[in-house]
């Protein structure tokens, strides 16, 4: 009768409730009668947080009423019908946002309700795998002896687990495996929970940590228990996996953290395939490096279990209680999903959202996959966050309700909405890379606010149309701002300085360079000026940042080299043909920091400079002084062409230059004859020692002069006359003729050029030849002439004939000169006629 009253109260308090019960189907009525019979055998029901208990019978009857149960979506307020439920709220902390700034939407889901468990559930086989390695004999905090021993914590807290199974008395079996360097079965699966606790209390710590073997032994225990029971493992450890068992090598125990962890992961993969869930418990102080939390998380997640951490007996006891409840009353809120419609132009903030947050383009919704929520609930509330970026024009955008859908613990589809009742207001605002803010409003005004204190610097208003977009053309520097108006037109503003308008360039002599061509180097570039802001003339300035304090200085680059700040000394321009140079102004106003100067437009120029004189050399060709000699001057320059050559002779008393029509040019060589020089017009004037002194000038205006004059000689050679002593030319002698060397001439004498003396040449040797022809004697025909006399007579047995007497003089410079021969005629018989 009490059951009937409970049903009547939950459905309706009048007679219609009774009629509803009476109209139940036969199977429903039979279930109703069964519930009455089973009421006295029901052990307990689970009650979630903050919810008051209701009668189990009422819960059961409510779950049978079709108005609450089924596959149709249920809207409206949730009722605690024993199937669990979720409610939720949301908020937007800031609704007035700037474009490209984060919009955060917060949600809080509140899982709640009760779930009933009956004795008729399947029994569960649980293998408790306990770490008894040597470290389990440590204090909880191994550096603090006041904290309890870890194995003692396990023994104390495990009573919660064994007592819970004893109290529930659902036929669940509990087995015990211990592991250290290896693992062994302590107690097979049993319902004698007190015996299990007794064996736990006997555990002793020693050895290393072989999680691999512990899980393997648990798998063997559970797979041997048959196929019907639900199979689960509770794994407790206080350290990292350091040992593993190599089944491929005779089950040898091997060391190595990496290999041991990988072996444990492989065990988890196998257990997951068998449907065996593993609950892992890390017994360690918070932040301890003694334990591999990643490994334990992997094992739990892979097998569908839960990873826990405990650092005290009370925490471990609570974990055991929670695991027991999960085993005793398995239940879930399944596929919990939150769907939030977002306004057009809003996107998920890149890199800001959790991995379970995605955008669904087809519905224009952000979908948050919460997943399954296990009962008992691990946390009171579930906080979710969506972070958006408004990538759109200015305006007000209503935020629609979020929708949360899920399946309750009775597998019914449920849904509720989270109402915001607000709108997101977006302004067109852009922050550059330096932190300066640009704001465009509906009146077409563009304002810039300084990064450091957000003080307004200037306002530009070119047209009275709302600004819908602001962006930077140069993504690296953020110095060119383009705005787009609502009507689709655009304006663009370059914040950099204009190119310099003036500068001073001087040559190597400090004279201004005002024309193209070659100039004496090196040059110097200085006094650069003439830059200004490029903002429109209608700009309204709010401070001096872009006016008097706008220009921070000028820079110069030479020959595409690094930029150098201009100083009072200027920048040197080196030698070269058409050396380029560039100038520009820079400002600190764009970045707002002297550490980040921004350069403006560039002015360019070039100049040809030469600071080194030509290379100069000379040579001569004087074969026969009477025929004149040729002087060659070779002048070259690596940069600018040679423009003039000048030559001086004999203490600069005589000269000739390339401007003279007498000097000819062939490539880099200038040539002239000595006779072309005024004062060398006759052979007599040219003979003897001479001083030569020369220089060359390039187009760059640089002259090279020989450091010291050089000397050359025009030597016609010695001269003399052969004279018959008792004979006149043309006579016919009837007797031998005595010939003497007379009228000797030495054309090259000593000559002084300032302090320099060149010595003349003297007679070195004389040779003669007497022959009857006038042809020049052969080289081997000459005979030394020891004195300056010789006698000419006829040949033996000859009474008449003509003889030519040749004389060769060699001076001290080895110049040979053959004199005109003396002709002697003989007739020794003329007086006999």
From TrEMBL:
The chain crosses the membrane at residues 53-75. Residues 125-323 form the VWFA domain. Keywords: Membrane, Transmembrane, Transmembrane helix. It holds the Pfam family VWA_2. This is VWA domain-containing protein.
